[in-house]
Design brief:
The complex is a heterodimer of chains A (516) and B (221). Chain A has 516 residues and is α+β, with helices and mostly antiparallel strands. Among the domains of chain A are: 92 residues; 155 residues, Heat Shock Protein 90 (2-Layer Sandwich). Chain A is built from eight helices and eleven strands. Chain A has a five-stranded mixed beta sheet. In chain A, strand 10 and strand 11 form a beta hairpin. Chain B is 26% helix and 38% strand. Chain B has five helices and ten strands; from the N terminus they run H-E-E-E-H-E-E-E-E-H-E-E-H-H-E. The mean pLDDT of chain B is 84. Classes of the chains: A alpha+beta (516), B alpha+beta (221).
């Protein structure tokens, strides 16, 4: 999280709050819609249950009327039996036969002359329902003339009680319907909440993958704002945030290179000023020194051969050293007065072709060889033709001189054109089979007056780098496949000029000594 | 850390009502009963007026409707010292208005598949009293009990009395196993979740759980 921002105001908090809000809205709306649905269905079900209960209630009066009719029928049959028995003066046999003739007549108790006699089964099973009909009807069974016990079909009561159980079940269902409706709403809410919590968790995880990376970017920006250098932007993925990080990384790299370039050019500028003064201060006395020693030599009378030899040797030495100083002064002057770059679109292959024509022999030694590998694709670069040739001359002479110092037989230098990973740039690669440059010195070799050679001025590679920086390009050292050093020159790619001719550059300057 | 503490506190507060409300459903009230030693069996007399109150209009209407009101008494005799069940019986009483038998109330008691009595009452109150009071109802054979007097084994009785116990098809939507089997697995699972959230489905219209004072059997001389 960026410093100074409270958590509740952070981007992450806003995203989490949004995810939570959406989740709650979904739960709330789902619960409401479900409640609506269940209430509607509940009303429909309630109406159906009420109708079913009403149907069950309709059965009751029918059953009551049926039982009352059955009771009346039994009483009528008892009366009929009694009257028939009285009319026909039944004896025991007739009564037994009458009871046996009617399957539902369990027994008949006849009271005559104070004595009672029972005809038929006389007892019933535990669960059997019976009806006792007496005649006369207004007499209790103990005094009635005939007491007939009829077996009632249990199906009447069983069916009626079955209706009762169904009626009770309907009542139970109605009472519980509200509880079940509430439970359904709770169950769905719970399930929706579980699903949404899981979804929210995933959403939070996904959101944090974005917010965390945004926070990293914000923190990096804050560090840049505070002037911190050498900031490493981590890889932030392949999406838009990742591209933002990549762009930031590219920007920081460009910023670092620009700072390095500015610092280098400032140093070069300082060194150029010093070189100008040194050249001026050293150049002035050289001519009087040369004239003075020449006068000495001219004034020698020649009377003393030994003195004459010593004088001649001394004059020769002084002249040699003055020559060296003159060359050094010339180098300093060239360094101090490097021309402005006038870059224009140039065909790189043609520049290399011209270079090869001028310097293809490399040295007087036949064993030394220069190889040119053009791009072959008509590559154009934005360059000052003359200064670019001077760069190539410096680099090739450096390679030759470094190889000579270590005694390399058959110096081989190869110049090739390659593509740069950045499609807006082109590389010219100079490989050699010399001693190479150790990794710890590869940045130092471009510093003015830094040399590893006995007779170097330390300015050649500094001139190369300044020219290329002024072109908007760069130069650096790598390991070479040939075993020595590889100098990589980076130049801006250009579109071919409309006329097809090369741009106008400066006149070619002489090569200068370079150092490694 | 503050966020975690807040979330933990929130979770605790949300769970508190559930924890507080949780309690055992098998909670027995105490009521005194009278016990009788008949030599071969022991009987008990005890009242359960809360099963069928005259103030319960729906229950009284049901009694008058002709449909049966079933009172189920599950009588459990427990050895108090050994803390084990000695004998369990189900005493079933049905009460209804009988249109056939001269518009009277019939009270029938059955135990172990055998009818103990069938009585008829002209007044509903009398019929209700007879149905809700266990009068010298056999509860255990003395062969299952140990005589020992005051210093010997003691027993108590737990009674679960229910009015109109509900069968599986009467316990509400989704409770019928046959119905559950007819549905696909997702609906079955959802039904179980709903059943869990509904909570306890009533076993009967009214359920009363009572336990009696201890009793013992005198030693035979």
């Amino acid at each position: 999280m960026a410093a100074g921002i409270p958590w509740w105001r952070s981007f992450e908090a806003k995203v989490l709050a949004l995810v939570a809000l959406v989740s709650l809205a979904c739960i709330g709306s789902a619960a409401y819609l479900l409640r609506l649905s269940t209430t509607y269905l509940d009303a429909r079900i309630e109406a159906s249950l009420v109708r079913a209960e009403d149907m069950a209630d309709v059965v009751r009066p029918f059953y009551r009327d049926q039982m009352q009719a059955l009771a009346s029928a039994y009483r009528a049959r008892a009366r009929a039996l009694a009257m028939q028995a009285r009319a026909e003066d039944w004896g025991d046999g007739e009564w037994e036969a009458a009871v046996g003739a009617e399957p539902d007549l369990v027994s008949a108790t006849v009271r005559r002359a104070g004595a009672a006699r029972t005809y038929g089964q006389g007892s019933v099973a535990d669960e059997e329902v019976t009806f006792e009909a007496t005649w006369p009807e207004d007499e209790p069974p103990q005094t009635a003339e005939v007491v007939a016990v009829f077996r009632v079909d249990p199906e009447y009561d069983r069916r009626f009680q079955e209706v009762g159980r169904m009626r009770r079940a309907l009542a139970v269902e109605r009472r519980q319907i509200d509880a079940y409706e509430a439970a359904v709403v709770r169950a769905v809410s719970i399930l929706v909440a579980v699903v949404l919590v899981v979804a929210m968790g995933l959403g939070v995880v996904l959101a944090r993958t974005v917010t965390r990376r945004v926070a990293v970017l914000a923190a990096t920006m804050a560090r840049i704002e505070q002037g911190e250098e050498n900031i490493d932007v981590p890889d932030l993925g392949r999406d838009e945030v990742g591209r933002l990080g990549e762009a930031l990384r590219t920007m920081l790299d460009a910023l670092a290179r620009a700072r390095e370039r500015v610092a280098y050019l400032e140093r070069i500028g300082a060194w150029q000023g010093m070189a100008r003064r040194i050249a001026h201060e050293i150049k002035n006395p050289l001519t009087p020194i040369t004239l003075a020693v020449q006068q000495l030599r001219d004034k020698d009378p020649g009377t003393d051969p030994a003195f004459s030899r010593t004088l001649a040797t001394a004059v020769e030495i002084v002249e040699d050293e003055v020559g060296t100083l003159r060359r050094m002064v010339a180098t300093f002057s060239r360094f101090a007065k490097m021309p402005e770059v006038a870059a224009a679109p140039e065909p790189v292959d043609r520049i290399l072709e011209e270079f090869e024509r001028a310097y293809g022999h490399l040295t007087d030694d036949e064993a030394d060889r220069l190889e040119i590998r053009p791009s072959g694709r008509g590559t154009w670069v934005l360059a000052d033709r003359a200064l670019l040739k001077q760069v190539l001359v410096n680099l090739v002479e450096n390679a030759v001189q470094a190889a000579r110092e270590v005694g390399t037989d058959g110096v081989f230098v190869r110049i090739a054109v390659e593509d740069d990973p950045d499609r807006g740039f082109v590389r010219i690669v100079v490989d050699d089979n010399g001693p190479g440059i150790p990794a710890e010195r590869r940045r130092l070799v471009f510093e003015p007056y830094h040399t590893g050679r006995r007779d170097g001025t330390g300015l050649g590679l500094a001139i190369v780098k300044k020219i290329l920086l002024d072109h908007g390009g760069d130069v650096w050292v790598e390991d070479a496949p040939l075993g020595g050093a590889r100098f990589v020159v980076r130049l801006r790619r250009a579109e071919p000029a409309a006329s097809g001719t090369a741009g106008v550059g400066h006149a070619e300057s002489s090569s200068s000594s370079g150092e490694r | 850390m503050k966020r975690r503490r807040f979330l933990a506190a929130f979770g605790g507060v949300a769970a508190a009502p559930w924890l507080i409300a949780a309690r055992s459903r098998d909670h027995y009230l105490f009521r005194r009963a009278r016990f009788f030693d008949h030599g071969g069996y022991v009987s008990m007399s005890m009242g359960f007026p809360e099963l069928l109150r005259a103030s319960d209009r729906d229950a009284m209407a049901w009694v008058d409707s002709g449909f049966e009101t079933v009172l189920r008494y599950r009588i459990i005799v427990v050895d108090r010292k050994a803390r084990r069940e000695v004998e369990q019986r189900v005493h079933l009483v049905t009460l209804r208005f009988d249109f056939l038998q001269g518009d009277r109330y019939e009270v029938k008691a059955r135990q172990g598949g055998r009818t103990l009595f069938r009585r008829y009452y002209d007044e509903r109150r009398a019929a209700v009293d007879a149905a809700t009071h266990l009068a010298r109802v056999p509860i255990a054979d003395t062969s299952r009990l140990v005589r020992g007097g005051p210093g010997g084994p003691s027993y108590s009785v737990a009674v679960v009395a229910q009015r109109n116990p509900l069968g599986p098809d009467e316990q509400g939507p989704g409770a019928d196993p046959a119905v559950a089997r007819a549905q696909d697995r997702d609906v079955q699972w959802f039904g179980r979740l709903v059943g869990f959230l509904v909570g306890e489905v009533p076993e009967a219209e009214v359920t009363v759980r009572l336990r009696t004072q201890p009793f013992y059997l005198e030693a035979r001389r």
